[in-house]
Amino acid sequence: MKKLFAVLGNPIGHSMSPLMHNDLFSYYQIDAHYLPFQVRAEDLEDAVKGLRAIGVGGFNVTVPHKSSIIPFLDEVDPLAKSIGAVNTVVNQGGKLIGYNTDGPGFLKGLTACYPSIKGKKVLVIGAGGAARAIYFTLAKEKPLTLDIANRTPNNALSLIKECPYSVVSHAYSLEEAGKQLVEYDLIVQTTSIGMSPNTSELPISVNEIKKESMVCDIIYNPLETKFLQMAKQHGAQIQNGIEMFVYQGALAFEIWTGIFPDVKRMRENVLRQLGGHTC
Ligand code: ATR
Predict the structure, then answer these.
(1) pTM surpassing 0.85?
(2) Mean pLDDT of the region 53-72
(3) I want to staple 80 with a disulfide (CB 3.0 to 4.6 A). Which of 9, 100, 187, 256 is the partner?
(4) 137 annotated ligand binder
């Protein structure tokens, strides 16, 4: 019998996950189908009960339900628990188990072209949900320092305090961090600043960027934010948000099926769809 997979969010219309996972199910000849469901916050518990009752294979969870889903699950893996957010759920013999593949997806995408952050000086820009997943995941990799720059430095301080993995960290304002960018080997931009349609916005001044540094933006629309364009002009190596998106999906697919899928195929598929959206 065909297995159902799903993504729950609100809004959900523009999600690229159905296309990505349905292509993988057919490529690996798995009898399954992945559907998007728009679920209001007040309906989330019922939605999870319904999915449980019909024997869903697994599902993704996206904005705004990543934290509020947790009480409706049977188990949550330790990293997801510490992050306080779940983006992937697997149904294991009737038990719904939650994972977070956002942080690990970012790390896997990064290490494909930047093998190790051990001993490196790292700056995360932003202190929201995405920053938290990335920060906690990177903290486990033993960077020399893992700093945060945020509009509200107190939010960065809270995030640092809540991180369960010990790492040397400082919280800065965006302005302060901009003046000392030359310090960092790796910079990860996690805010929505520069996302379409506000493509001329810049979270931080890039004038002080170090030439050989690695600069990532988790935004993928546009494919090259102004921040990435300017970092590239200053001689940095850059990576856009496609990698994190594709790898979080690949890790979810692996949790559901045991198969780590063809990431190149997934990337091409997503880029084809994005091309249609953005041009
Ligand atoms: P997500 O869950 O997608 O990461 P979020 O939780 O709303 O989104 O987090 C947004 C992040 O972007 C925060 O770090 C926020 O800064 P504050 O902590 O000061 O709110 C940052 N952010 C959003 N809009 C911003 C703007 N216009 N200028 C500067 N920072 C902004």
Answers:
(1) yes
(2) 98
(3) 100
(4) no
